[in-house]
Amino acid sequence: MRIVFKNLRILYGKDLELIRGNIVVEDGIIVEISDKDYKESIDMKNGIAIPSFTNAHTHIVDRICSDKYFYNPIEKIVGRDGFKFKCLSEANYEEKIKAIKECISDMYKYATHVFCDFREEGLQGVLLLKDILKDERFIKPVILGRVNDINETGKLLEIADGLGIPDINFMDLNSLKRLRNICKERNKLFAIHCSETRRELDLCIKLIPDFLIHLTYADDYDLNLIEKYKIPVVICPRANSSYAVGIPRIKELFEITKVAIGTDNVMMNSLNIFREIEYTFKVARALYKDYKFDAKDILKAATINGREILKLKTNEIIEGNIADFIIFRNKCFINDVYLAIIHRYDFSDIKVVVKNDEVIFR
Question: In what order do the strands lie in the sheet with 162-165?
Fold first, then answer.
């Protein structure tokens, strides 16, 4: 199948450079981006084409516990033996399936085509998510399992994409290093929640993780370590705010490393990536009183950066790449497309979704 989308503003390539032209997709591949005049084409009337969204940190089964325990300290909610684990243990299989399917439906709506889930409940937890999503074509999960028994690590990594460690105190440091080495040997991801409720990054760094999540308590020394070891970071500012644990040092993190964005725990926060990017952008500008903080950086973090951190193929809009993009309808008086997408557009403004050889008109 060949389809031509013409009359577009396109956020092109790795830098999301704004260009004008047409996108030609054939058999799921972007075969041409140009300003040629095509007779058979779909006029997008100055719409905006951007890579689809990547949600780089979620816990989607926790949808079951939505807004329960909200007015409690984070340690009581998600800490070891916290309320959420009681909630999950009491939920039946059908409830967990319903939670997963509702979250996938939300991600369809928000044009989020990749998400990275920290899946608790050991081997069975990963199997549950894999089973529900085994026939999913539009949304790719990256599943990081949690080891309940270190002896089941090999079996878990046969089906998971890696390990998601809840915090540095989850096991003793030598055991965590052993898990890290197993992941490295098997070319699997190893990521860790770090400095969410207290400063602990110097310990996390010793594990040489593929990426870190949160860093709400990172100080200057920690930022220097991140820059020195070039460790990518996933930030979740709305969830951090919901848990009342603070805001990561957004501006500095963008200056020193690769940053992606996640919505985190669905019990405390929605999967709405549009809300996440607007909140992150405006909070950063407010906290730093920096009127130059750039909307384009936030869009990169919510689209192409996450794919790179998760070691997936890029979804940049470039010739020869797999088609994985969305097209927003035009609006009057859009003078800056990056700003418009962040604080004027919503999922209801998506006109076309393209993923491989599938094209959906909304």
Answer: 259-261, 233-235, 211-214, 189-194, 162-165, 140-145, 112-119, 53-59, 264-265
Look at residues 309, 327, 346 and tell me which one is the last residue of a structural domain: 309
Q: Are residues 325 and 299 in the same domain?
A: no
pTM for this model (two decimals) = 0.96
CB 303: neighbour CB atoms within 10 A?
32
Range(s) of the domain holding residue 159: 53-309
**pLDDT at residue 80, as a whole number:** 84
Say if residue 141 is in the same domain as residue 182. Answer: yes
Q: Concatenated DSSP letters for 90-133? A: HS-HHHHHHHHHHHHHHHHHTTEEEEEEEE-SHHHHHHHHHHHT
SS3 state at 188:
coil
Domain limit, last residue, from 269, 293, 309:
309
Q: Which residue has the tokens 């490295």?
A: 184
Are the CB atoms for 60 and 115 separated by under 8 Å?
yes
Contact by Cβ (8 Å): 10, 317:
yes
The residue behind tokens 């949690």 is: 146
State which residues of the chain have pLDDT below 50.
none
Q: Which region holds residue 254: left if phi is over 0, alpha if psi is between -120 and 50, else beta?
A: alpha
For 142, 169, 171, 205, 225, the CA distances from 176, given in Å and listed in that order, are: 21, 9, 6, 12, 19
Convert the pLDDT of each residue in 116-134 to its tens digit.
Answer: 999 999 999 999 999 999 9
Residue with tokens 């919503």: 346
How many residues in the chain?
Answer: 362
Q: pLDDT tens digits for 243-267?
A: 999 999 999 999 999 999 999 999 9
Check residue 215 and report its DSSP letter.
-
Please give the radius of gyration of the chain, using alpha carbons only, rounded to the nearest integer.
20
